[in-house]
# Entry
Amino acid sequence: MFSLQIDTARSWRGGQNQVLLTARGLHARGHRVVVVAHPDGELRKRLPADMEVVSLAARSEVDLPAAWRLSRVIRELQPDVIHAHDPHGVAVAATALSIASPPRRPSLIAARRVDFHLKGNSFSRWKYRQVDRFVSASDAIRAMLLEDGVPAERAVTVHEGIDVDRVVAIEPLNVREEYWFPPHSFIVGNIAALVPHKGQKYLIDAAAIVVREMPEVRFLVLGEGELRPSLEQQIKHLHLGQHVVLAGFRADVLAVLKGLDLFVMSSVTEGLGTSLLDAMAAARPIVATRTGGIPEVVVHAETGLLTPPRDARALATAILELLRDEAKRRQMAEAGFARVSQRFSVDLMVEETLAVYAALTGTTRAAGTSSPRTAG
# Structure
């Protein structure tokens, strides 16, 4: 199987990590993979040296020069499938296919990792009509695609996966020492871009409630984004300067994660939440919101606690409950590690992705391999 994997982002977030894991997994299984990535992007920098790469900078969804260049790549390489991992990637691939008119049209697959509705403008409707299969990161995303009119047979769920062994092998960072937190403090962490749908403002409101009950708790928020100024102002207004740290982007985020006592995801909407998978692989107990694909990852009262989104008081109550119960934290951490190892491994994700490719191209696969779900 020969696939062209496309991601046009410059930044490094969960989606880019999934592209990297997919490409590595396919390559390790002997399949030819060519990754189309931004020349100055983080994905391009992190790809293995022996992987074929095409540099492409798409300035917008309607970037005809980029589409023209990609059309020549498609005609020259003739891949079996094109797997586009971001909206700009889908747009440039759909346009390139219409320009290239290759002798054998490759199947176009669109990854869908956000629980946002498809845009309704004419160009978006056109580009998504060119997609042969939508691969959703969760059943919640797939259900939203069906609401948007995507036929059921064109949408499948392939849950995102992580390299559990890699997370296990990472040495934890001494977070208390790194950030000058008190030696006996509890460290509650959040890892996400500072954007509205990640809900950090509700986490900071929850932090104000928590520290009134347990002053020794410290909150560490990793990530960058447009909300930094407003979150800094919120922290100042609530007099939380000694209790909440906006730590920005860190390349060693998994080492930081392993140094936490509790991981919290405060999202208002969430496709799946690969940070949750990382936290489970790091054997961290979890508090998260009951939204999007999160309940497909976190089993309430078993691997973590789920609260309603936009509810700071409920979030604080759950955080306090786990911080006060060491045995429950340990039990949930162990259950979470077992669940992520069995249900969300990178090997399972790659095998299910290959099943999508095989179904589209009519190739056969080895017996006993996993298949993606078309009902959720």
Residues 326-343 form the longest helix (18 residues). Confidence is low (pLDDT under 50) at residues 365-369.
